[in-house]
């Protein structure tokens, strides 16, 4: 049976055990903390070059089982992949056209999975984006509230401001901005499931008179400068490189002169947007975020600037997102039985790998997260921003 396994596996020293379909076991190092259970004999040849994409696909399809903590599984699978696959620069990704139907279908695939499923592992406001850890000691609830406050302070929101929330999700930021800062909010999403629950929560909090949420594509935003401020969280990753310029132009047209625009989103490590992680990016593209494309910070700021907005502040929150994802992953792992009753088995396998894998990816610097604040200058080039950031931390 040993002869079936690629000889190179016997040269590796990792706390990892392989168990074959017939019960035969091979320990790759002392005191294994993770066991990979190979249920399909056809997988054996893939262990010669085990990409994270191939291992993840096998797990999703039930041809491979994983025993051990999911975070340790991710770490050791990456170590196995690094040991057997030489580092090579991936080719720049193919740019794909994004139309309204394609984007709507992609958003529905990810976000319309099950509101109850997401509620299992998100915070009480169901904020599905990077939290903000002011000291590093906060729990998830505290850090998500801090993030919402941080965004509103950066936007210098004040009572009566008309805020556009592009990609409003379950409405956590919209409600926070209306309740805590006295703003009027117009939020848009392409997810029907998110919209339904977001409207329920707005009504339950008695904020109907200050918040309006609609199913609307960003390409159809009004272009009359009616909004005082614009916030977009976790949105530009879905736009696609080919449409980034149009997206930024739509935000420019929606905000008044002197108004502020905040983009908060995941950014690529490489300036050309090529993927990293020995197949991890391909797995996410196939199973998690179809048609998602990550721009580099330089690309995003260029498109914002070319649209006529002036970038005035940039903050990197890579490790904040790693910690957020670790919270989410731990929450899901602690409620797997409940989750299995809410979504299909394959979906649960995908999300287990996705949350733990993304936490690892942010820790390793494969991807980043940036908040980019911009202003639409007045005709004479001026704006109303304070001279320093002092007010953000008062």
TrEMBL record:
GO molecular-function terms, A-Z: methyltransferase activity
Keyword Lipid metabolism in record: yes
Transmembrane region(s): none
GO biological process: lipid biosynthetic process; methylation
Record keywords, A-Z: Lipid metabolism, Methyltransferase, S-adenosyl-L-methionine, Transferase
Cross-referenced InterPro entries: CFA/CMAS (IPR050723), CfaB-like (IPR048027), CMAS (IPR003333), DUF7884 (IPR057206), SAM-dependent_MTases_sf (IPR029063)
Record-linked SUPFAM superfamilies: S-adenosyl-L-methionine-dependent methyltransferases
Superkingdom per UniProt: Bacteria
Domain DUF7884: 12-76
Signal peptide positions on this chain: none
Annotated active site: 358
Pfam families membership: CMAS (PF02353), DUF7884 (PF25371)
NCBIfam families found in the cross-reference section: cyclopro_CfaB
Family listed: Belongs to the CFA/CMAS family.
Name under which the protein is recorded: Cyclopropane-fatty-acyl-phospholipid synthase
């Amino acid at each position: 049976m040993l002869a079936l396994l690629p000889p190179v596996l016997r040269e590796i020293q990792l706390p990892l055990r392989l168990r074959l379909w017939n019960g035969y076991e091979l320990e790759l190092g002392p005191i294994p903390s993770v066991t990979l259970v190979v249920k399909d004999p056809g997988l054996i040849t893939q262990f010669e070059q085990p990409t994270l994409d191939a291992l993840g696909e096998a797990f999703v399809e039930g041809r491979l089982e994983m025993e051990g903590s999911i975070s340790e599984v991710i770490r050791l699978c990456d170590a196995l992949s690094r040991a057997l696959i030489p580092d090579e620069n991936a080719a720049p990704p193919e740019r794909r056209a994004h139309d309204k139907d394609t984007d709507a279908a992609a958003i529905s695939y990810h976000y319309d999975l099950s509101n109850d499923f997401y509620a299992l592992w998100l915070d009480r406001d169901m904020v599905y984006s990077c939290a903000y850890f002011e000291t590093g000691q906060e729990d998830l609830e505290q850090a998500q509230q801090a993030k919402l406050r941080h965004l509103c302070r950066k936007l210098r929101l004040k009572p009566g401001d008309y805020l556009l929330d592009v990609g409003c999700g379950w409405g956590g930021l919209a409600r926070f901005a209306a309740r805590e800062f006295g703003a009027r909010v117009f939020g848009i999403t392409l997810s029907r499931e998110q919209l339904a629950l977001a409207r329920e929560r707005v009504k339950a909090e008695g904020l109907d008179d200050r918040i309006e949420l609609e199913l609307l594509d960003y390409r159809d935003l009004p272009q009359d400068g009616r909004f005082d401020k614009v916030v977009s969280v976790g949105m530009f990753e879905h736009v696609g490189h080919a449409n980034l310029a149009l997206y930024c132009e739509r935000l420019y047209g929606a905000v008044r002169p002197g108004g502020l625009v905040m983009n908060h989103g995941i950014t690529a490590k490489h300036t050309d947007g090529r993927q990293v992680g020995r197949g991890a990016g391909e797995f996410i593209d196939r199973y998690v975020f179809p048609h998602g494309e990550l721009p580099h910070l330089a690309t995003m700021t260029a498109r914002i600037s070319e649209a006529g907005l002036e970038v005035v502040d940039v903050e990197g929150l890579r490790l904040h997102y790693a910690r957020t994802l670790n919270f989410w992953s731990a929450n899901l792992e602690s409620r797997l039985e409940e989750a299995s009753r809410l979504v299909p088995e394959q979906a649960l396998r995908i999300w287990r790998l996705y949350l733990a894998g993304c936490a690892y990816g942010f820790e390793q610097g494969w991807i980043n997260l940036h908040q980019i604040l911009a202003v639409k200058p007045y005709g004479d080039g001026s704006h109303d921003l304070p001279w320093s950031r002092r007010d953000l931390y008062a």
